[in-house]
Write a structure and sequence with these properties.
The structure holds two protein chains of two kinds. Chain A is α/β, with parallel strands linked by helices. Chain A folds into four domains: 3-89, Single Sheet (N-terminal domain of TfIIb); 109-178 and 405-568, Rossmann fold; 199-302 and 313-403 and 634-645, Dimethylsulfoxide Reductase, domain 2; 661-752, Barwin-like endoglucanases (Beta Barrel). In chain A, the strands form seven sheets. Chain A has a seven-stranded mixed sheet with strand order 5-4-17-16-15-6-7, with helices on both faces. In chain A, strands 25-27-26-29-24-28 form a six-stranded mixed sheet. In chain A, a hairpin with a 4-residue loop joins strand 26 and strand 27 (719-726). In chain A, helix 5 (122-140) packs across helix 24 and helix 11 packs parallel to helix 17 (374-387). Chain B is an all-alpha fold. Chain B has one domain. Chain B has helices at residues 2-33, 61-66, 77-82, 104-111, 186-190, and strands spanning 115-117, 122-124. In chain B, strands 1-2 form a two-stranded antiparallel sheet. The longest helix of chain B is centred in the first third of the chain and has 32 residues, at 2-33. In chain B, 24% of the residues are buried. Classes of the chains: A alpha/beta, B mainly alpha. Chains A and B meet through helix 1, helix 2, strand 3, helix 9 and helix 10 of A and helix 2 of B.
Chain lengths: 775, 232
């Protein structure tokens, strides 16, 4: 094999799972494309049937093939026909099915009796949930009950939740944990483009020359996509990967250039890049003249630290000249002082974005979204791409990544958020009319005012404005910021908490009723990933004990509450029926969904799916059936993309004499979210069995802390003692510590701050002030 | 004649120098006109012991994938294990060395980047830690290796070698069965011509190894929820 053949082989192995390569001919012969085509193709190996599903874990949405034998999932490989991952997986995906079989899987309903969770028949628990919900509505009004769901809900789960809460009961008390992970991405899209979700898709990676990763440790958090970047660079050595981060990670190591900046100064850096583009006249003048308009909004917008905080932006249209004046503050030399990034690096970044010969892709995820100016920083990155006209064409792509398998598909598209309906906002009469018509409920039933976003919803529960909360597929007692306040709220005597989950967690610990849920491929559903791809999976396994899908749990309760007419489906047909009903909301070239049959046939379909064709690049007339002309940003009334002037504003809490360090939180590649699934997978648990605090070696030396020694962290919210890790997985800069949040044994969110972006309501888990001592 | 020749030589030299000046100045002028093309500045980047080698030698991935297998390899798995006393122990040196060869420079001439050694008719194994140059601090010559390459002379093993390719499910990527101390550079031992066949990855073109292969040793206690379900 020569080098050329090797390169070809590289492409070919992309279409063959690593697992398959490890065991040539043992189990995988005859696998590959054929087995995905019909999902029920006869197995090539005795007793093993391969069936397609998106991965259970992150928002990348890798296509997997799960090997089923004797009613059990026994193996996993990457689906070579999936355009997402081309046959490759990550360590979580390859071991994902083991999360179905943890020893302490919840298999029966539990009801708190005399302070103890006691097993009861599922029917009895569902009766109790329905009775309590109805009773609370009667006593305290419909806005006293709430549903808190998840970006791990399937699309049908989210749809049933929306129909139950907004269509049947008539309250907007519906939120999902995706508020904590991508709300700022949504408000960023809405304010810049008027429509949610990326204009491009993963295929952009195959066209781009420069990848700029903003506060995004992609090597660990989106490993399969990162491998696509590495492969792109391996085949094209001129391709550059730039890592812009607040902490030195695996991603920094693999990047061609690593640039560290001080927390929160990404706002100033993005503005400095725009300033430099304007100063050098690198603007794509024709694009800006025809497709962009300029705006500014309120400044000094607050942090939401107080209950019932409210904010409304006042957008003003401005000229390019006014925008240029406002940017004057952000000359690279000034930003160097603020951000710690040398002016020459800022110039270098600007030149990469501006180089007319280079196609540029930007990636970001929690570093931007979990940010008290999350909406602003999302706007700012679009500003850069818009000024140079590098958007909505193959390889030119600002790309907002997500962390959950259906944060996009369910929470954002179905709209399981207080202000949303399956199509449009509750404040929009047209959207309410459409929902009332499709749901066949009176228009007055659908409440026109949003109630609470997640943080405010838990605050309302604490105050007693909300008395009943049903939590599904998420673990807020690990993931809420300023956790103690909200845990105390859930524990209050006259609050009734229902939790649907697959394992006991700190959240089920404080529940009054625990409902065992069917997980992932134990039921049928669809998820939508970060690139607008909807992916269907069949029910392949029987759920254990009395476990039941989240959607069906809600339907059972809705029927008990007298809403049976709204949920007339059978267990056998409810998924296709829901899909048909839901698709009516999205009809039209801007968001047309593929049919149920199409979804079952393919490894995933990008929407808008019009006349049998996926839309890879939105707003681009060449690809997008809804766009008129070469570019058409039809989400905004002026059919232009909006550049926003957004200034740098300091975070609400910064290191000071008493709390001299930054506290940053996040994940590791082996664990996902609150760890309730990945810690039940021995391979993953074994690799990273417990949380730790990362320190810079110089700080450790100063404090007299050795690797593995116990360290006390204290913030204004609380304290925690955990082992030190020095130069392990990553290295924070001096003056910063990092703690992963997957470990329920070390609840780092007791220390974090519940400040949020006023526009999106999404809290900032990446920045607060902490004291660090040897314990 | 000879005067002419030296004059010609001097003129030629001057012409060459002028041409060089034109090229250098011209390039710098052109470079100046390029938009903000700042030369990368070498910066001290941290080295994380367990992570450092993740992407080392990644640029060779394509060549490794194209590499033919060497027939009749002497460097067998048995020989590989025989040179190590235990998991993670430094292998002994199986070939003759002279005291004056004790500097890292000499060792790295072959073991830094590998390559074919006609004398031993074999590809040289590559060190996973070329930054450590006091080689003989840990690696000592095997007794009896004075003449030629030794085969599988035992070093007196104290631990069993790990099972190879042991994924926990059929086809799942095997966890890393050894510690990473000084062996964090996966490709040094698992790819390239010097690697033992049985230890070679089947997919050297995949460079982000620990995306799929989790650290498997030492084993942690099975996951159990903390007693209160809350903070420790």
């Amino acid at each position: 094999m020569n080098r050329r053949e090797a390169l070809r082989a590289l492409a070919a192995t992309a279409a063959m799972s690593a697992a398959e390569a490890t065991f040539p001919g043992v189990l995988f012969r005859g696998g590959g494309g054929a087995s995905t085509a019909g999902a029920q193709t006869p197995p090539a190996e005795a007793g093993v049937v391969w069936r397609k599903t998106p991965c259970r874990f992150c928002g990348v949405g890798c296509g997997l093939l799960v090997g089923i034998s004797n009613g059990r999932a026994v193996a996993v490989k990457g689906d070579p026909t999936s355009p997402v991952n081309l046959g490759l997986g990550c360590v979580k995906g390859y071991h994902s099915v083991m999360a179905l079989y943890g020893k302490d899987r919840l298999t029966q309903a539990l009801v708190r009796k005399d302070g103890k969770l006691t097993p009861v028949p599922m029917k009895e628990a569902l009766d109790l949930v329905a009775a309590k919900m109805a009773e609370t509505i009667k006593a305290h009004g419909k806005d006293a009950v709430a549903m808190y769901g998840s970006g791990q809900w399937t699309i049908p789960d989210g749809y049933v939740a929306s129909k139950l809460m907004k269509g049947a009961i008539g309250t907007n008390n519906l939120e999902a944990n995706a508020r904590l992970c991508m709300a700022s991405a949504v408000t960023g899209f809405m304010t810049s483009f008027g429509l949610d979700e990326p204009m491009g898709c993963y295929e952009d990676i195959d066209h781009a020359d420069v990848f700029v990763l903003w506060g995004n440790n992609m090597a660990e958090m989106h490993p399969v996509l990162f491998s696509r970047l590495l492969e792109r660079r391996l085949k094209n050595p001129e391709v550059k990967i730039i890592d812009l981060a607040t902490r030195w990670t695996r991603t920094s190591m693999a990047a061609d250039r690593s640039i560290l900046f001080k927390p929160q100064t990404d706002l100033a850096i993005a503005n400095a890049i725009c300033h430099e583009i304007l100063r050098n006249d690198w603007v794509n003048a024709a694009f800006v003249r025809n497709h962009v308009s300029f705006h500014e909004g309120k400044t000094n917008i607050g942090y939401g630290l107080e209950d019932k905080f409210a904010f409304k932006d006042e957008p003003k249209t401005i000229t390019l000249e006014r925008y240029r004046e406002l940017l004057a503050e952000y000359a690279v030399e000034k930003v160097e002082a603020l951000s710690g990034v040398p002016a020459r690096e800022l110039r270098y970044l600007a030149s990469l974005y501006a180089d007319p010969k280079k196609k540029v892709m930007s990636f970001w995820c929690m570093g931007f979204n979990q940010h008290t100016r999350g909406t602003w920083i999302n706007n700012l990155i679009y500003n850069i791409h818009l000024l140079v006209g590098k958007i909505a064409t193959p390889g030119n792509s600002p790309f907002s990544l997500t962390g959950q398998p259906s944060a996009c598909g369910t929470v954002r598209e179905v709209g399981t958020l207080t202000h949303r309906l399956p199509h449009g906002d509750v404040t929009d009469e047209k959207a309410r009319k459409q929902a009332a018509e499709i749901w066949q409920v009176p228009l007055e039933r659908i409440a026109p005012k949003p109630t609470y976003h997640t943080v405010e919803m838990f605050r309302a529960l604490d105050r007693g404005d909300i008395r009943f909360m049903w939590i599904q597929v998420t673990n807020p007692m690990v993931t809420m910021p300023k956790l103690r306040r909200y845990r105390d709220a859930l524990k209050k005597d006259d609050r009734f908490i229902v939790v649907s989950d697959v394992y006991p967690t700190p959240t089920t610990d404080v529940a009054d009723v625990v409902l065992p849920a069917a997980m992932w491929i134990e039921r049928e559903g669809m998820w939508g990933n970060s690139e607008r791809r909807t992916q269907h999976f069949d029910k392949m396994l029987t759920p254990p004990g009395e476990a039941m899908s989240d959607a069906w749990q809600m339907i059972e309760v809705a029927r008990r509450m007298g809403f049976e007419k709204l949920f007339p489906w059978t267990e056998a047909n409810h998924i296709p029926e829901i899909w048909r009903e839901y698709s009516r909301f999205q009809a039209g070239p801007e968001h047309e969904m593929a049919s149920y049959d199409e979804l079952r046939r393919r490894p995933g379909v990008l929407w808008p799916f019009v006349n049998g064709k996926e839309t890879k690049w939105r707003y681009n007339g060449q690809y997008d059936p809804a766009a008129k002309g070469p570019f058409d940003f039809y989400g905004k009334p002026d059919r232009r993309a909006w550049i926003w002037f957004r200034p740098y504003e300091a975070p609400p809490e910064m290191p000071d004499a008493q709390y001299p360090f930054w506290l940053n939180t996040g994940r590791v590649v082996e664990h996902w979210h609150s760890g309730s699934l990945t810690r039940r997978v021995p391979v993953l648990h074994n690799a990273v069995p417990a949380a730790y605090v990362e320190l810079h070696p110089a700080d450790a030396r100063k404090l007299g802390i050795a690797n593995g020694q116990r360290v006390r962290l204290t913030t204004r919210r609380g304290g925690l003692v955990l082992p030190a890790q020095i130069d392990g997985r990553a290295r924070p800069p001096e003056g910063q510590v990092f703690v992963p949040f997957f470990d329920e044994g070390y609840l780092i969110n007791e220390l974090t701050l519940d400040a949020f972006c006023p526009i999106s309501g999404q809290p900032d888990y990446k920045k607060c002030a902490v004291k660090v001592e040897r314990a | 004649m000879s005067v002419n020749r030296s004059r010609l030589f001097l003129i030629g030299l001057a012409v060459l120098l002028m041409a060089a000046v034109v090229v250098v100045v011209g390039q710098s002028l052109v470079a100046d006109r390029e938009p903000a093309r700042v030369l990368p500045v070498a910066e001290a980047t941290p080295t994380l012991p367990s992570e450092a080698g993740m992407y080392a030698r990644a640029a060779r991935a394509v060549d490794y994938a194209a590499m033919p297998t060497e027939p009749n390899r002497k460097r067998t798995l048995a020989a590989f294990y025989a040179r190590r006393a235990s998991l993670g122990a430094p292998p002994v040196i199986p070939h003759p060395v002279e005291e004056r060869d004790a500097s890292g420079k000499t060792c790295l001439a072959c073991h830094g980047d590998g390559g074919w050694v006609p004398r031993f008719e074999a590809y040289t194994p590559v060190t996973p830690h070329p930054e450590l140059t006091s080689c003989r601090q840990c690696h000592v010559p095997l007794a009896g290796s004075e003449s030629g390459m030794r085969g599988s002379t035992s070093t007196g093993q104290i631990t069993q070698p790990p099972a190879l390719r042991g994924g926990v499910m059929p086809g799942s990527p095997p966890p890393i069965p050894h510690g990473l101390e000084m062996r964090e550079n996966c490709r040094a031992c698992h790819a390239g011509p010097g690697a033992v066949d049985a230890l070679r990855t089947t997919h050297p073109e995949r460079v982000s190894c620990r995306q799929c292969h989790a650290l498997g040793a030492p084993p942690a206690a099975a996951f159990a929820r903390p007693p209160e379900g809350g903070a420790r």
